[in-house]
Amino acid sequence: MAQPVEAGPTPPSYPPKTPPPPKKPPSPPRPNPQDPKKQTAADTVVPTARRGTGMRNRRGRNWVLESAPWAAGKARPAVVEQLESWGYRPAAAVLNAVEEVTSLLVEAAVADGGTTVSVHLSDQDGQACVLALSHCPGLTTSLDEAGEDVLRSITAHPPVSGCGTDTGPDGRRIWAVLTL
Question: Would the pTM of this model clear 0.70, i.e. be above it?
């Protein structure tokens, strides 16, 4: 007959060994730039929103106005008052030109048909940059005859040293740089 089995040895006085931590998973393969099957950089660029108006190392101010016919009337005195608070005391002819150019910029932005218009003002080295942004997405990048007429009207003022326009996903920016 079978003999009873005697109890095994006493349990150890130390804790059991813990399992090792899991190994780091292998990293995915790096892309091969010489692979001709891959798309070019221009094909893989993801469109993003245009960076907002940025100013560095200069004073700046901005106003957001309702896109309405009277927006230019609100922007003109705001721009002139801000320039005067910065210490500019231009001649009357230059102040009139600043008001006219501001009106042209804001009216062009209002004509784009957005809900709001923002006016940005900055200064540096005796020059001021006035920029109007129409917050109207979906505008085309081509400049129509009305846009060219606005730029011609802006450059007709003597203190204007430059102007331009561009279009992005958030609307059209139109600006002028005036020598004060």
Answer: no
